[in-house]
Amino acid sequence: MAKLNFGGVEEDVVTREEYPLEKAQAFLANDTIAVIGYGVQGPGQSLNLRDNGINVIVGQRKGGKTWDKAVSDGWVPGETLFEIEEALEKASIICYLLSDAAQIELWPTVKKHLTAGKSLYFSHGFGITYKDQTGIVPPADVDVFLVAPKGSGTSLRRLFVEGKGLNSSFAVFQDATGKAREKAIALGIGVGSGYLFETDFYREVTSDLTGERGSLMGAIQGIFAAQYEVLRENGHSPSEAFNETVEELTQSLMPLVAENGMDWMYANCSTTAQRGALDWWRPFRDATKPVFEKLYNSVKTGNEAKISITRNSQPDYREKLEAELKELRESEIWQAGATVRSLRPERN
Ligand SMILES: NC(=O)c1ccc[n+]([C@@H]2O[C@H](COP(=O)([O-])OP(=O)(O)OC[C@H]3O[C@@H](n4cnc5c(N)ncnc54)[C@H](O)[C@@H]3O)[C@@H](O)[C@H]2O)c1
Ligand SMILES: CC(C)(O)[C@@H](O)C(=O)O
Ligand SMILES: [Mg+2]
Ligand SMILES: [Mg+2]
């Protein structure tokens, strides 16, 4: 593993140079990897594995939209695409990529197929960490590990197709064969990770739940909404408010921050913007830090897991979710956003 300095802290990472694809292919040559679930991560991971020359099949419920999507992605019923139980039977490594709530419902079936020597792969520490709530307790004679791409399955696939790679974390929960760690690394490379950093199931799930509720999605939507509302309340038009809140961030500044870091961004805007941004970042940190502390605590106590399981296990959860998403979609800010996006020259 390469030892790298992250802002003064040394950490080990696994890169493709050190664990090349050929090594992953050779290590997994005798395995059948069954990707169970074809939602967001399922397509990204299974297609990348397939294109990386690894023996992979997909297990999915027949008759639904996702089965049809799998067929249109080139998975062949009876050859590489199976009903879930058939795929579980054929697998030596089961990649459990159903939604976290659905994993609870299907667990008794998966467990039945987890015979000695098989492996169980997750992309989240959720099911294992919150075992008191999920009931997911694997038999002792199987390897259990995770590879968690740090981003959407959509980006995992897009970046792979562009010859790039998303970073992923990996962790071993149970090593029955002495090979669990290498299985995690080989699969991490196989699913298209750019590099891998090691963690454990608890730290993966607590950081991930915090991130998606926080600065990745929850907090950012909250800050967008707050600034947009203040601009609108002060007489700015929707297009002006949206451009100054979202469009410039995603189209201009964030790609530059991604490339060069925030210090570079601060150095490469006007001195006027620089002065203001340097003065205002601390007040924003101070205002939001208590909310982040409350959030982290809610994750740590298992409260966020409880909410997620309860809400996402209800029979009408999709209808309720759709109503919430409709409200967001129809809010003025995102309606303005739709119009702004339609004006981007590359869309014409
Ligand atoms: N979405 C992401 O980009 C992302 C990123 C990193 C990690 N993860 C993790 O990866 C795993 C999979 O997440 P996802 O977002 O791809 O899942 P998802 O919500 O898209 O669902 C995946 C599949 O589960 C199937 N499904 C739902 N209920 C079912 C049931 N009762 N029986 C059988 N199948 C059912 C759906 O048809 C779908 O094909 C989760 O552990 C998640 O936390 C997701
Ligand atoms: C893509 C995210 C937000 O990083 C992932 O954690 C998820 O749960 O979808
Ligand atoms: Mg997540
Ligand atoms: Mg995540």
TrEMBL record:
Residues 9-199 form the KARI N-terminal Rossmann domain. Mg(2+) 2 binds at D208, E244, E248. Mg(2+) 1 binds at D208, E212. Keywords: Amino-acid biosynthesis, Branched-chain amino acid biosynthesis, Magnesium, Metal-binding, Oxidoreductase. The keyword Thylakoid does not apply. Substrate binds at S270. Its EC number is 1.1.1.86. This is Ketol-acid reductoisomerase.
